[in-house]
Design goal:
With about 230 residues, the chain is α+β, with helices and mostly antiparallel strands. The protein is about 30% helix and about 35% strand. It folds into two domains: about 80 residues; about 120 residues, Sandwich (Immunoglobulin-like), CATH 2.60.40.4070. Helix 1 runs antiparallel to helix 2.
Length: about 230
């Protein structure tokens, strides 16, 4: 199985550290409270004992805080287990052909494919491609059939210049025969080359484009080997 796996659990570690810090602070405050309570009880006037209502209320508050901290710790443990399970499942996508919802096309080796889904048959479909600065670099005529369509891009700008490999933003605009707008969803189709775990999120890299696993639309299986 080809591909690579990159891990970065910064966010998860920060959350766990926050819970540990909260628990440590709570422990110190509770110890201080108990020492003060013990001291006051030992030194109270037996003929005029203190009203323990306030202490009781404070004990209840400490108990409530302790339960909240434990619940947060248990929740963080469950989230960590879920992320670990998700990460293990994501690795199985390496080498598979997938559809991911996204408005980016990856230009690799001077070639790119823009895939999109039309909700209805269009009279005209325009594919606009923008560079990282938001500048329109290429405008293509797209297919108008309802359903799934794909347009190949040779990596050249409208002026004929060959553009460098990388990620380019895609905008697909479709209109019907009555000049009404047709709903369009852009799709990235390609083979997953690696899986990355960044900031607690699982990311898939398809044809040089890295997108969240949460945007996965379909898994089409392992590409057929050429004979």
């Amino acid at each position: 199985m080809s591909g690579s796996i990159t891990t970065n659990y910064t966010s998860g570690g920060a959350a766990t550290g926050a819970s540990a810090a909260s628990a440590a602070t709570f422990g110190k405050n509770f110890d201080t409270f108990l020492k003060l309570l013990t001291s006051q009880l030992q030194n109270q006037n037996p003929l005029s004992p203190m009203d323990t209502t306030q202490f009781t209320q404070q004990l209840v508050q400490f108990s409530s805080v302790e339960q909240s901290i434990r619940q947060n710790q248990n929740l963080e443990t469950l989230i960590a287990l879920q992320k670990s399970s998700q990460a293990g499942n994501a690795v199985s996508y390496i080498g598979k052909t997938v559809d991911v919802n996204g408005d980016v096309v990856g230009l690799v080796g001077g070639e790119g494919v823009v895939t999109y889904q039309l909700a209805d048959t269009a009279a005209r479909t325009i594919v606009n491609i923008y560079d990282k600065d938001g500048k329109l670099v290429r405008r293509l005529e797209g297919d108008n059939d309802a359903g799934r369509n794909a347009v190949s891009w040779n990596g050249k700008s409208d002026t004929g210049a060959q553009l460098p490999d990388g990620d380019y933003k895609v905008e697909v605009v479709a209109q019907g025969y009555a000049a009404e707008n047709i709903q369009v969803s852009t799709i990235i189709t390609g083979v997953v080359s690696d899986v990355r775990f960044i900031g607690g999120a699982t990311m898939l890299t398809i044809d040089g484009v890295t997108l969240p696993l949460s945007q996965l639309g379909a898994v089409r299986g392992t590409p057929a080997s050429s004979s």
